[in-house]
Amino acid sequence: QCPGIEPLCLDLADWDATEAAVGAAGPFELLVNNAAVAMLQPFLEVTRAALERSLDVNLQAVLHVSQIVARQMIAQGVPGAIVNVSSQASQRALRDHAVYCSTKSALDMLSKVMAMELGPHKIRVNTVNPTVVMTDMGRINWSDPQKSAAMINRIPLGKFAEVDDVVNSILFLLSDKSAMTTGSSLMVDGGFLVS
């Protein structure tokens, strides 16, 4: 749907490969960090492997890719926007989500610090924080009415998010229509956090 966009397939935990590939792909004006893993385990059963993988993808990769892109933006002297895809789970404890909730909370705070430090360079940084999104994976994990009912009953709008709900929020935060918005978290949760 977007001609001229060339995807890069990378292991974001490999900092050297990421630096080389992303560094060569610029120049950039916009960045969306959307890579994430959700390795769900009860708190008492969290493994070191799950913690390390989650930190690598959900937090460290965002920091590293954002550094590469922001340095290019600053070197070009152009304003830019970065949107980090977080989650409602950054602000609400969910059973078996100790690691996921923690990495998404850390991502929200990283985004605020980025906004503060990159603002003088005219680079805005925000997060979108969706509820369950009906991607292919979301449909597989949440299509069982018995499983989904408890979550949907806590969402005032009574449904999960569709991909377009998240995409449209990201597009808003990337656009000049949000030119005075930085360091913010845009909830795309159907009201989950107010229930």
TrEMBL record:
Organism the protein comes from: Spheniscus mendiculus (Galapagos penguin)
MF-aspect GO terms: carbonyl reductase (NADPH) activity; L-xylulose reductase (NADPH) activity
Record gene name: DER
Annotated family: Belongs to the short-chain dehydrogenases/reductases (SDR) family.
Protein name: D-erythrulose reductase
One Pfam family of this chain: adh_short_C2
InterPro entries, A to Z: L-xylulose/Carbonyl_redctase (IPR051737), NAD(P)-bd_dom_sf (IPR036291), Sc_DH/Rdtase_CS (IPR020904), SDR_fam (IPR002347)
Keywords, comma-separated and alphabetical: NADP, Oxidoreductase
Keyword Transport attached: no
GO biological process: glucose metabolic process; xylulose metabolic process
Subunit structure: Homotetramer.
